[in-house]
Design brief:
The complex is a heterodimer of chains A (138) and B (241).
Chain A: E1 4-13, E2 23-33, E3 39-47, E4 54-62, E5 68-77, E6 80-94, E7 105-110, E8 117-122, E9 128-131
Antiparallel strand pairs in A: 1-2, 2-3, 3-4, 4-5, 5-6, 6-7, 7-8, 8-9
Chain B: E1 4-14, E2 23-33, E3 39-47, E4 54-62, E5 68-77, E6 80-89, E7 93-100, E8 104-111, E9 118-119, H1 124-129, E10 141-149, E11 163-179, E12 182-192, E13 208-213, E14 220-225, E15 231-240
Parallel strand pairs in B: 9-10
Antiparallel strand pairs in B: 1-2, 1-15, 2-3, 3-4, 4-5, 5-6, 6-7, 7-8, 10-11, 11-12, 12-13, 13-14, 14-15
Classes of the chains: A mainly beta (138), B mainly beta (241).
C-alpha cells in the first residue's frame, strides 16, 4: 500500500488507593498516513471501570494541515448501544489575490445545508483563530 | 468488559497464473458480541492489487436477530479519499449520510418495501457473517439473498450510497479444514450471481466460495472468487477473549 501504518495498544490502569496498577481498560489504535499528508486514526477503546463500562469506536480523519475533516463515533455504554454519529466538515478559503490585501482566511463549516461555522482563521498580519464553542439546534 | 471479543487477520492472495499465492492485501477485524445479542464488526481492509488500491474502514452493527442496524464506511482509493458515510438500517428504510469529492454531501432515505436479508459491507468477514441467513438444518440448498450495500462495485470501490443487490447463496455442506489460524469445523457456502444481480462492467459477480466456522460466529476461514478475479482469502490469526 502507498500509506504508512502505525498500530498500538494503550493500557488503562488505576492509581486509586488499593487498585494501583490494575488494568481498567485498553485501547487498540491504528493510524494510516497517506501520500497527500492526510491521516486517519481508528481506535477501539474499552473502559471497564468505573461503571458503567464504555466501549467507543472512533474513526477520525485529518487533512495534511492536521485539521479534522470527518469523524465517526459509536458508543456502547454499560454494554448497551448509546448512539452513533458522523460529523463532516467542508473546508473553504477566502483569498484576495488581486489586491493582495486581505490575508488568506480558512474556514470549516458543517457539510450540510446549514453551513454552520466550525472553526477557521486568518493568516498574514492578522493571525486570528475562531472556533465554535456552543451549538444548539431546535 | 461485559462483551466477548473476536479478533483476527485475513490474508488476501492471488490465484492468477504466475502470481499464485502472492499477497495482494489483508484485513484486520474485530467482532464484539454484547449481552443483548447485538454484535459490531470493525474491519480495516487493504487491497493492493489490481490498481487502484483500496483501503476500507468499516464499523458495522447488527441486532440480536442478525439484522443490520448501522454501518460506517470510509474509503481511500489509490491513496486518495473517495468518501465516507453512515448508514442506518430499519425495518422500513435505509438512510445514508455521506460525502466525498465526487458526490458532495449526500442524504438518502430509501424505502425497503418487503423483507430483506442483510447489508453487504464488503469486508471478507462481513461476507462470511451473512451466511448465517441460511438455515443449515434444511441441508444443502440455494437461498435467494436480498441485500443492501454501500457500493455495488465488486471491490466496494465507489462512494458510499445505498444500493440494492440480489444474489444467491448456496449451502454446500460441512467439513473439517485447516487454515493458517488452525483447524476448524467449517460450513461451506457459495455465493452465485446467475441473474447478474451484481453485474458490473466486468459482468456478473463470479462464483465466490467461502468456508466459515460451523458455529454461531460464522468466522471466515478461507475462500476465493473465480472468473476474472482469481482471488483467495485465508484466516491467518484468530483470538477470542
Amino acid at each position: 500500500m502507498q500509506h504508512r501504518t502505525i498500530s498500538g495498544k494503550i493500557l488503562y490502569t488505576s492509581r486509586k488507593p488499593g487498585r494501583e496498577g490494575q488494568e481498567r481498560g485498553r485501547e487498540q489504535f491504528t493510524w494510516t498516513i497517506h501520500g497527500d499528508g492526510s491521516r486517519t486514526i481508528r481506535a477501539l477503546c474499552e473502559i471497564d471501570e468505573p461503571d458503567p463500562t464504555v466501549l467507543r469506536d472512533v474513526t477520525c480523519s485529518f487533512g495534511a494541515d492536521d485539521r479534522p475533516t470527518d469523524c465517526f463515533v459509536r458508543l456502547t455504554i454499560g454494554d448497551r448501544f448509546m448512539g452513533a454519529g458522523i460529523f463532516a466538515a467542508s473546508h473553504f478559503r477566502f483569498t484576495d489575490p488581486d489586491a493582495q490585501a486581505h490575508p488568506d482566511y480558512d474556514i470549516w463549516v458543517t457539510a450540510d445545508d446549514d453551513a454552520l461555522f466550525l472553526n477557521g482563521g486568518v493568516g498574514g498580519y492578522m493571525q486570528t483563530w475562531y472556533e465554535l464553542t456552543e451549538l444548539t439546534r431546535r | 468488559m461485559l462483551h466477548e471479543t473476536i479478533t483476527g487477520k485475513i490474508l488476501y492472495t492471488s490465484r492468477k497464473p504466475g502470481r499464485e499465492g502472492e499477497e495482494r492485501g489483508r484485513e484486520y477485524f474485530t467482532f464484539t458480541k454484547h449481552t443483548d445479542g447485538s454484535r459490531t464488526l470493525r474491519a480495516l481492509c487493504e487491497i493492493e492489487e489490481p490498481n487502484p488500491t483500496v483501503m476500507r474502514d468499516i464499523t458495522y452493527s447488527l441486532d440480536a436477530n442478525d439484522m443490520p442496524t448501522d454501518c460506517f464506511v470510509r474509503l481511500m482509493i489509490g491513496d486518495k479519499f473517495m468518501g465516507a458515510g453512515l448508514f442506518r438500517i430499519t425495518e422500513d428504510f435505509v438512510e445514508c449520510e455521506s460525502f466525498g469529492p465526487s458526490i458532495g454531501r449526500l442524504s438518502q432515505k430509501v424505502p425497503i418495501v418487503g423483507t430483506f436479508d442483510g447489508f453487504g459491507t464488503h469486508p471478507i468477514q462481513g461476507d462470511a457473517y451473512i451466511t448465517k441467513k441460511v438455515d443449515k438444518s434444511k441441508g444443502p440448498h440455494i437461498k435467494a439473498l436480498r441485500t443492501f450495500l454501500p457500493s455495488p462495485d465488486h471491490r466496494g470501490a465507489t462512494p458510499p450510497m445505498v444500493s440494492e443487490v440480489n444474489i444467491f447463496l448456496q449451502y454446500v455442506g460441512d467439513e473439517t479444514i485447516t487454515v493458517g489460524a488452525g483447524t476448524f469445523e467449517a460450513s461451506h457456502f457459495r455465493f452465485t450471481d446467475p441473474e447478474g444481480g451484481m453485474a458490473s462492467s466486468d459482468g456478473a459477480h463470479p462464483d465466490y466460495d467461502v468456508w466459515v466456522t460451523a458455529d454461531d460466529d460464522a468466522i471466515f476461514l478461507q475462500g476465493g472468487v473465480g472468473g476474472y478475479m482469481q482471488t483467495w482469502y485465508e484466516l491467518t490469526e484468530l483470538t477470542r477473549r
